[in-house]
Amino acid sequence: MCLKPINRTLLLELKRSPAVVPSGELLNELQALGLLCKPPSPSLGKGWLRRRRKRCERRCKRGKRAGVRARLRANSSRPALPSILLSNVRSLENKLDYIRLQRTTQRGTRDCCVCVFTETWLNDRVPDAAIQLDGLTSHRADRDSSLCGKTRGGGLCVYINTDWCNNSALVSKYCSSLVEYAVVGCRPFYLPREFSSLHVVAVYIPPSANAKDALAALYGAISDLQNTHPEGLLIVAGDFNHANLKTVLPKFHQHVDFATRGASMLDLVYTNVIGAYRAEPRPHLGYSDHISVKLIPAYRPLVRRSRPAKKQLKTWPAGAISALQDCFECTDWHMFREAATTDGFIDLEEYTASVTGYISKCTDDVTVTKSITTRSNQKPWMTAEVRALLRARDIAFRAGDKEALSIARAILARAIRDAKRAHAQKIHSHFRDSGDTRQLWQGIQAITNYRTSTPACDSDASLPDALNVFYARFEAKNDVVAEKNIPSPDEQVLRLTTAEVKKSLRRVNPRKAAGPDNIPGSVLKGCADQLADVLTDIFNISLSSANVPSCFKTTTIVPVPKKSPVSCLNDYRPIALTSTIMKCFERLILRHIKSLLPPTLDPLQFAYRANRSTDDAISSTLHLALTHLEKKDTYVRMLFIDFSSAFNTIVPQHQITKLGLLGLNISLCNWILDFLTGRPQTVRIGKNTSNTTTLSTGAPQGCVLSPLLFTLLTHDCTALHGSNHIIKFADDTTVVGLIENNDESAYREEVKQLLTWCKVNNLSLNVDKTKEIVVDFRRAQRDHEPLDVDGSPVEIVKNTKFLGVHLAESLTWSLNTGSTVKKAQQRLHFLRRLKRAHLPPPILTTFYRGTIESILGSCITAWFGNCTKLDRKNLQRVVRTAEKIIGVSLPSMSDIYTTRCIRKATGIVDDPSHPSHKFFSPLPSGRRYRSLRSATTRLQYSFFPQAIRLLNSKGQI
């Protein structure tokens, strides 16, 4: 036992007075009581107690608890999004004591920003004072018996915490036998800048109500809110019973992931922000049969999610292009050729490098490089002048000078007003000329911030080298030596004219990124007259010597993540940046090669050819399947092949051999061989660049010639059996097997022959991504044995993505239309923002047709004819919503389908080389086309029968 009394005063004295050295007996007693963290040292001096470190002396901040709950407790009245308590109370008046008790004893309930209660069972005989709670503002929407026909049940009540928001109002309420909802608008003390407003929608849908009709009424109210507040935050909470809001608003996100009544999820919360909340269950209120739901904000404001980014921009002062034109006009280009000539031999490498280096140096002399800092939540009208005035106002505030602060605030307000006005005038200037589509879209993007975003790459400095090695992995497998053939002396070598080169330079898009030579497209476009002669000379020397300068072949790979998060190196898609001058050169070669090819070459290759598209590939595939399924005891197997890095596996020597068989002369084949070999390649991610690797395998993705070369490589990949067909769109290859009487021998032999062809041509299949669909409508269902590829079975799936559409084994289109509606609903947000900016209907219509109708009508000729009434209704709902926003009538989905069917059919009829031209055969009278016989509605409403009927009804023959 401790005989000496130890009190708080003694302990504080020992702590604060290092000069006081305790005795050994006292130290032993303190240690026995657990008041010493460590055993005392044998040699105790005056510093036996460590001095407390001051806060300013700490090297890093002291840690604290993390997580959404800790974040909410630390700032309960100013969260990014309001915390919500949702409950079906079944008589609010009888649950008030439970609510008061929880608010008194539980901090989480007391600090809750919004409380949404359904089935309040209140009526006009219950005054507001009877349900009032301290610190909360109530907004009630009682059930109206005259509107819904029921006197009992129902009712909604929303409580707003005044510590979070003291400015709230009941915007609207609605009551019917289908649905009850109340809309409460809030202006809290703090709301992230990315949200312009906040509305809470309390909802109750009775169990007996028709879900479709109830959601249609609710959709109208929410759509009106989105039209009025396109940048606002919408929180829809309540008891939905059997209804699912995502069927009409697919871009809303549901946050409750547990059952709220028995085993059913009835009380749900939807928002238009992904990952906004994390739901947690709470006990029942009294004897209510629903548990309560607590929604904890998980959203982080935009300003906290991303750091300010610094960028280096190259700006063009006024008159820069004119200065370059004068400079290049006075340049003696013949001097560069003479410097590269030795004993009559022109060193093309030196000649090209000196010319491109000179152009790049002159460009750097007339441009100005600026460093800017961008922030994620920065307003577009925020200028350097406004930021300087903001700093001046803050200095005056910290100084405590009221008069200077008043003057600074007034000056700042005028500057902000002027900056907003100047920004508005700049945007409106884009819409003055309706014929200038580029200016038009720039103005639309400035208002809507409509840009496609790509996931960011990892900032690891070793990643570029790892990716460069990964992209060059096929180089080791290529053991074929590239050898040029000797052309005959009388062979005609392609020569380009100055006019052709000048025309190609003038067509350069100045907005495209510059290649490794740092020569922007604006220089080539603006100085085409001055540069055409020297570039024509370089091009012709390259063609005559079958030598491509290495600076033209240099490639910088900018990897783009295919998905987020990235799990392996194969999840990065290599995008090649090549010289813009070389792209102009390639376009001229491309046009010459196409002129040498027969129009009937590889008719089932639908990519990179005139009057061909993904619609034709899908329609041809479906017509083959549907026509075959008309027969007895038949089914169809479709193998969707995915090649692993198809463009990167091209063997140049194999490519040249096939080009020679197609009629290209030896000189041009040697030039293409040199173009594909000895290519320097680097990978760049941000400021990190890999080492240079030289490749002689594959064709870089981003070159103009690469797609054509790949299609010519695969032109001999055709079906061997008449019951099989190979449909190709670039590297997307589909094998369609038409099977009768369960005999799959021809189909399986076709797949084996295809695998052999792939090995010969150095193409490898990605078995994990290769899928197969079996379309079998026979009554007696059978198990189908999967295909075997290199010892791995190919997965048989119920649906897959085929050239942009979702193809199901039942050949129905509900999944595809659902995905289409979801994308189109997302684009409506930008249309609402344009309407908010008071743009005229013609501009809104242009945006609708370019971003929404293009989504709804993607490959519409292939699938709309077989859509169900429900699918068509869902598609038309998007069109009706757009009509309300724009204020004009828009073409219906049926009209769009009819128009495009007629246009597509007319193009096929006028193109005898089209593989589907044979289906449009005129009758002997010459006034109508012969109808295609069909026994099922699937084939009857597919594209080709429908197109023939439409052409006959319009008399277009």
Automatic annotation (TrEMBL):
InterPro entries to which the protein is assigned, alphabetical: AlkB_hom8_N, DNA/RNA_pol_sf, Endo/exonu/phosph_ase_sf, RT_dom
Transmembrane spans: none
One Pfam family per UniProt: RVT_1
UniProt-listed CDD domains: RT_nLTR_like (cd01650)
Reverse transcriptase domain boundaries: 541-807
One GO MF term attached to the UniProt entry: 2-oxoglutarate-dependent dioxygenase activity
Highest taxon above the source species: Eukaryota
Annotated protein name in UniProt: Reverse transcriptase domain-containing protein
Species annotation: Gadus morhua
Highest classification ranks of the organism: Eukaryota, Metazoa, Chordata, Craniata, Vertebrata
